[in-house]
Specification:
There is one protein chain. This protein is of the alpha/beta class. The chain is built from 19 helices and 7 strands. The chain folds into 3 domains: about 130 residues, ATPase, nucleotide binding domain (Nucleotidyltransferase, domain 5, 2-Layer Sandwich), CATH 3.30.420; about 130 residues, Helix Hairpins (Orthogonal Bundle); about 120 residues, no CATH class. Helices cover about 55% and strands about 10% of the residues. The strands form 2 sheets. A 5-stranded mixed β-sheet has the order 3-2-1-4-5, with helices on both faces. Strands 6-7 form a two-stranded antiparallel sheet. The chain starts with a helix and ends in an 11-residue tail after the last helix. About 30% of the residues are buried.
Length: about 425
């Protein structure tokens, strides 16, 4: 829910018990205050376990009853992942959870004692005071299909990271043992290149086998793209190789391990993408998004996973802010600074929007037309990257309209929304 600063402050009334919690891996610390910042009771330290959570709940409800409060709100920093289970426990027990910015905690912790000290006693109070002053946001904890997609996106990102690690290791290996490999194969992930790295990865094995047998070996799996000519080129490169000549047995073993890991992660990536595709089609309204030329299942699933339930938004600008695509400007007096995006939001959502622009600008005529207009207009032409960011904001508006109104994508309406400056008429 979006609130103004005044609305946030007004929510913290004299009937509200404000609790600040400092989250840790094993033991959390909490302190309770009223709406003016007066502390109630003593600090409680409780373990990150079911019994610890129950001890906290007993302590909090005891303060609530003792001081005649009607509501409990708990503020905390969203640092790491240790707050996830605690927040879910509070939500399940009807306690409102509010998040404060860790940067705000760091900047305001010296107000009471003029000291940069950070400890379990000080931090809960600092967090509670930020909540009292309305400097908080309500966390969105996705549920149902949205939670499934969020977890699936996490899994896919982790697998991709592992694949990139393997790619970098293979590239390093080739630089050491067969630097000329890249002159024969532009991409080592192609079928013939993978067969080569699996069966005869080092120059000595290539020379020992010979071009004719290599070509024959390739034809077992690859019919047209490679042949004797490519095999001769590989053999020639192997004979002139400057790669290391020692330790080749273990080097080949190392490459075999890389191959096993690569195949495993490729298999896992395919599986998780199939699962994401099966999940995303269950989201209401997503079929209209998938009808946009250039938007694939994975991009659509990523948008749903990061944005969550669209009903919690009332305007597309809220999603732009969530992505950190809202504009900022540094100006003072007569000085007018440059305008840029804040980048204060979900980093992965920005990345997905940027990745979505590549196929859209390449294959979608409407986005192609807008990209060309933004980068070539006579007044304030944008750089290509700036144009892609602007088009990402446009995609958010389209996404919001299709998902909330359940209407079909209209290419002409999209183009008509852009207001181009009209040429001045002659007098």
């Amino acid at each position: 829910m979006k609130y103004t600063q005044n609305e946030k402050i007004l929510q913290i009334t004299e009937e509200v018990l404000v609790i600040g919690t400092d989250i840790a891996k094993e033991v959390h610390a909490a302190r309770g205050f009223d709406f003016r910042g007066i502390e109630y009771g003593k600090r409680i330290d409780f373990e990150n376990s079911h019994q610890g959570y129950q001890n906290f709940l007993d302590w909090a409800t005891g303060l609530k009853t003792r001081f005649g409060k009607k509501q409990i709100v708990v503020g905390l920093e969203p640092t790491g992942h240790y707050w996830f289970n605690y927040a879910q426990f509070l939500k399940d027990n009807g306690i409102r959870v509010l998040l404060v910015n860790p940067y705000h905690v760091k900047q305001s912790k010296e107000l009471d004692d003029n000291s940069p000290t950070k400890n379990d006693r000080k931090d809960p109070k600092t967090i509670a005071m930020l909540v009292k002053d309305g400097r908080f946001v309500e966390p969105y904890i996705p549920e149902g299909i949205y939670r499934e997609l969020r977890v699936a996106l996490d899994v896919r990102e982790r697998i991709n990271k592992q694949l990139n690690i393997i790619r970098n290791r293979v590239a390093r290996w080739l630089d050491i043992y067969f630097p000329e490999f890249g002159t024969v194969f532009s991409d080592w992930e192609g079928k013939a290149a993978l067969m080569t790295l699996q069966d005869f990865p080092t120059p000595d094995r290539v020379i020992g086998l010979g071009a004719a047998k290599i070509a024959e070996h390739w034809k077992k799996e690859v019919k047209r793209t490679v042949g004797l000519k490519r095999a001769i080129k590989l053999e020639t490169a192997a004979k002139k190789s400057i790669g290391q000549k020692q330790g080749l047995e273990m080097a080949r073993y190392e490459m075999a391990l890389f191959q096993e890991e690569y195949e495993l992660y490729r298999k896992q990536l395919n599986e998780i993408e199939v699962r994401m595709g099966a999940l995303v089609v269950q989201v209401p309204g997503i079929s209209e998004i998938l009808r946009i030329k250039g938007i694939g299942v994975i991009i659509a699933a990523g948008l749903v996973a990061e944005i969550g339930d669209i009903s919690r938004f009332t305007h597309p600008k809220q999603i732009q802010k969530l992505a950190g695509l809202n504009l900022k400007e540094n100006s003072s007096g007569k000085h007018k600074g440059k305008t840029g995006i804040t980048r204060r939001g979900r980093r992965r959502l920005r990345a997905i929007l940027f990745l979505a622009m590549m196929p859209l600008v390449a294959n979608n005529k409407e986005f192609q037309s807008l990209h060309h207009y933004y980068t070539t207009r006579s007044q304030n032409p944008l750089k290509k990257k700036q144009s892609l960011v602007l088009l990402g904001s446009k995609l958010i508006r389209i996404y919001f309209a299709l998902m909330t109104k359940h209407v079909a994508y209209d290419p002409q309406k999209m183009l008509s929304d852009i207001r181009r400056p009209q040429p001045k008429r002659a007098a």
